[in-house]
Amino acid sequence: MSPAAVKPNYHQTPLEAIRDHARVDDEGHVYALPTEEGGEEVHIGQYSAGDKDQALQYFVRKFDDLYNRALLLAARVATHADSAAHLRFSRQQLVKELENGTWLGDVEDLRGLLTEVGTGIAAIAAEEDKQQQAAVEAKIAKREEIVAAAEALAVSDSESTHWKSAQEQLNELFEQWKTEQRTPPRLTKAQEDPLWKRFRDARSSFERSRKAFFVRRDKEAAEIKRAKDELIAEAEKLSGSTEYGPTTKAYHRLMDQWKALGRGPRKTEDSQWKRFRAAQDVFFSARDAANAKIDAEYAENLKKKEEILGKLHELMPFTKPAAVRDRYFKLLDEWDAAGKVPRADVKRMEKAIAEVQDAFREAEGTVRSPRESARSDRQSDMISQLEDTIAGLEAELAEAQSSGDDKRRREAEDALAARRSWLQMLTSS
């Protein structure tokens, strides 16, 4: 038989092409005639609801229906309308139906069409395998990326790691891992197990490092707390001291030690600092009050020295130093007798009196003989050195008095008395 398709996507077998290859008996039984000489007829079926042509047409339409379903499948294969698995299943159903049925039509032609369809499905399957392999490789690469990120967190420096943030990152990586597991394509056990082992080991290593860090930090924090308790005890012990100089230095040393220890446990750090600061405040408030009292006492001395300085300025310029010599040295004696001034005014007053003394020595040098001038210059150098020494001793004495250091005060007073005596001898000669 030679079927004729009336449309590219539709198959219809002409009845004329069937009449020479089939017969219908009087009871409506339809037989396919043998294709070879000596062959046997094949019983197709029975159709008793019409004449012989209608019986033939009935079985031809059944074949054409099968053929057209095969054409529809071919169109689905050509457009890749479905997966290879679904297309292959549809083809298998058509092949099974064709082989198990008895037809009036060009069976060989339909077999050829189904063979072409099978070839197309195989091509689709090959492309799907290629895409599947690429998807699997991408999936493995994504898992590898997750594992690498987890391993990087596991080996990070524990001292510089922000553990809360790192823990959140690791949890997010675990969620990504579970999402990748749920979404296709699925990895095989052989592909997934090595990656999972690395990821699990990284999480375990991270957790060990995190726990070790906090155990170590808690131990260090406890040590800091203990050390700061000792500093607080020492600070509180010193808070009532009246030896202001040494105790001030001691408090500075305690503060340096406190800062060097770093922050202690969060729960106790603030309360410890309040106790430590309170002890210092007690001491420094008492020291400031004592210094203020001393400065108030020295304020009268400053007033006297300001008046003496004014009288010395009245003698200037020293154009005739011999004429004012007695008055000049008498005022210097009054200056020494006036006593110490407040610390804030020491340098200013020392500078002012030094300028007056320099001016007087210079004036004396211009009216003496060269020999006398040389001797006067040497004497002036000695006087200048003694005055510098005295100024330093006066500052040291003031500090010792303000700090309450009796030993330093006595030593400074003795040294100062000796230098002033030498200075008196030099200036009165």
Notes on the protein architecture:
It contains twelve helices and five strands. With 429 residues, it is mainly alpha-helical. The chain has four domains: 127 residues, no CATH class; 83 residues; 60 residues; 135 residues, no CATH class. A hairpin with a 4-residue loop joins strand 3 and strand 4. Helix 8 packs parallel to helix 10 and helix 11 packs antiparallel against helix 12. The longest helix is centred in the middle third of the chain and has 50 residues. The N terminus is likely disordered.
Relevant terms:
mainly alpha; about 425 residues; single chain; rod-shaped; two-stranded antiparallel sheet; about 75% helix; three-stranded antiparallel beta sheet
Quick description:
The chain is mainly α and about 425 residues long. It has helices at about 15-20, 50-80, 85-100, 105-155, 165-180, 190-240, 245-260, 265-315, 320-335, 345-365, 370-405, 405-429; strands spanning about 5, 10, 20-25, 30, 40-45.
- Count of folded domains: 4
Terminal Cα span = 158 Å
The whole-number mean of residue pLDDT values reads 86
Secondary-structure element string: EEHEEEHHHHHHHHHHH
Give the uncertain stretches in residue-range form: 1-8
Write the topology of this structure.
Layout: E1 4-7, E2 10-12, H1 16-19, E3 22-24, E4 29-32, E5 42-46, H2 52-78, H3 84-100, H4 107-154, H5 163-182, H6 189-238, H7 244-261, H8 266-315, H9 321-337, H10 346-365, H11 370-403, H12 406-428
Antiparallel strand pairs: 1-2, 3-4, 4-5
Helix pairs in contact: 2-3, 2-4, 3-4, 4-5, 4-6, 6-7, 6-8, 7-11, 8-9, 8-10, 10-11, 11-12
